[in-house]
Amino acid sequence: MMMKKYTVYTLLGLIMLVTSVFADESKWLAVGMLHDWFSSAGAEIEVGRRHLISDQQDGLRWPAQFRYQDTKAAKALWIGTTNYQDPISGQTYEYKVVHVGPRVLDEENEFMPVEFKLVARFDHPQVFVDGFPASPLDYMDEVDEIDPDLPADRMIYNVVNTQIGITVTRRIYAFSQQNHDNYLIHEYIFKNTGIIDKKGTKVEKTLTDVVFFLQYRYAPTREIGPYGYYWAPQSTSWGHSTMNDAVYADPLNGNPLFRALFTWLGRHSKADYDLIGGPNIGTNTYGGDGRLGAAQYCGVVTIHADKGPNDKTNDPNQPTSTQVVESDADITYNNDPFNPAKMAKEYAAMTAGRPAQSHAELVGDGNADEYGNTPGGFTQAQGFGPYDLAPGDSIRIVLAEAVAGLRRDSCYTIGARWFEAYSNPSRQIKFRFPNGQVSEGTYSDGTADAYKNAWVYTGKDSLFKTFRRAIDTYNRSLDIPLNPPPPEQLKVIGGGDRIILEWANNAENWPNFAGYRVYRAIHVPDTTYDLIFECGAGTDHPEIVNSFEDQTAQRGFDYYYYVVAFDDGSTNDVHFGVPLESGRFYCMTNQPAVLKRAAGRSLKDIRIVPNPFNIRAIDMQFGYSAPDRIKFLNIPPVCRIKIYTERGDLIETIEHTDGSGDEAWNSITSSRQVVVSGLYIAVIEVTQDYFDPETGEIIFRKGETAIRKFVIIR
Questions:
Q1: DSSP 8-state code for residue 482
Q2: What is the CATH number of the domain that holds 494?
Q3: Tens of pLDDT along 432-451?
Q4: What is the rounded CA–CA span in Å between residue 604 and residue 644?
Q5: What pTM was estimated for this model as a whole?
Q6: Domain that holds residue 339
Q7: Mean pLDDT value of segment 75-83
Q8: Distance (Å, rounded) from C-alpha 425 to C-alpha 444?
Q9: What InterPro entries does this protein's entry cite (predicted)?
Q10: Domain edge (last residue) among 425, 443, 475
């Protein structure tokens, strides 16, 4: 892999990429409703996955089935110590700090990956639409290892050595069970191994006043900003108007072991309306509907932090520092582990303590982007320590990161009510608040904003409830009730008058298995899905089946599906009696299923398109999602298509049996080879008599054939 150093500068919302040494690898956790990507380096730098400016907000997506729900701009992990005699430079530093993020990454010399893998309890299913792979998990769930005893659905395992001699081991757990699918549990083990470089050089020494400093630059959400639909000010995309708050005890019961940082979208001076929740007021090219595009609350809760290397009890005084960091401060770029002055400033930020007032309290009801006179806004941060670590000593820190808030349908209905008032400022409208109170008022008198904001602010309670659930999950060793596994395979086939779904039966061996459910969306996959079929106990179809024919589909529309297995609800310890479902993303299609055209009426009408097929013109054929597709149109409802080379070699046989007049071929031979340029011959043979369903007249006779020639250019 090509090695280069990578640095990103943010100034007034513009990112400049400057050459500097990297070779990072990334992996997704994408089986629950919260999706996020992770770097082999130990933290996720700004635009670090694809290194594109358009990825200013990338990751921590919730609810992930909808487009542009990213809330993360950057992360960082710094490790600092004092009075460090550096074996590399030969100097002694009063403060030594090594870094990954928020803008720097040096996997050759500073944070050096040793191991990075995605472990799964089971692999993701195979999902096909009309014979073609159609699962987002094909590229977002690249499993390296199967462990059937894994307590979570997925775990990222990452080991990184650092120039300071501390080895970082992190495990990140993800669940698809519906009560636990919007948080990720991060377990860090920081061990003084003395390994300081990629060669494995070991320098044993005691490290003093060690601080582990994590930064979280949140920016809810991509949907509202320039890399989404762009109805909010540009600088929301890098967190300029986010509100950052912290609590050091559970507001529900005063538990001092509940320590959380949390963030939401605040007001912005460049928006001439109240930006709380990110309501869609429309643009010149995108219609306004009021929907709340940034109603999410995101944050991180500390579950456990060792008191010391010899005292593994949970320290309620950790993290010791929660002072926010100015996102564009000089300490956030050009970090250098051999620059004494800069490392002293960094260490000071890492040990700044807990502020008397949080960033959100200081902003108050004002515009978050105007606080502090900074173009970048502020980043959440927490420092753990200081610890003294002798050779072989280690510290364990466990965190849970989560996103919660209003349901997507509520974002539409609440936003639409607000938008009605916004569009008619003097109209008297009745608003129902979260506490059940109904108030009549207008946009002009502030009632509409109060209504919208009251609903958005319920996201804080939802986030805290998620935090409590994550804490409980970790304290019970991740032993939560498991949901049934998904079907190992799903096939969706578009026919002439119906769309057929067929799935595997492996889930039926699961204890307390009860049945299957089929959900469907129309037009696009990133929208709400409706339950259109269920089978099993307590349903209108008590018999267990492994297929369903969607006969309500209409020609000309795109349909997307997901299929889940569900149990009898007896193990659901959050909502007892409510069935647990297998994760929706396992058997979700990301390619449309459509009704195919009716069968042809005559062999002379058979066409092959495109003809010629030219790989350089895929955007004029079936698009980049199907670059090698060739279609046979107006064919008999049941026939066999044999494809030959010009010299007569049979390279593929397709059995067409779905009753439609369409069949697709992906230019792959029966020996799994991509065809080369040349002239090809297709022989279409009728394999079953076909009669007109209305007149009874025979249209195709078994054995009849048609021959067509087509050209492929590559």
A1: P
A2: 2.60.40.10
A3: 999 999 999 999 999 999 99
A4: 20
A5: 0.85
A6: 24-405
A7: 98
A8: 5
A9: Ig-like_fold
A10: 475
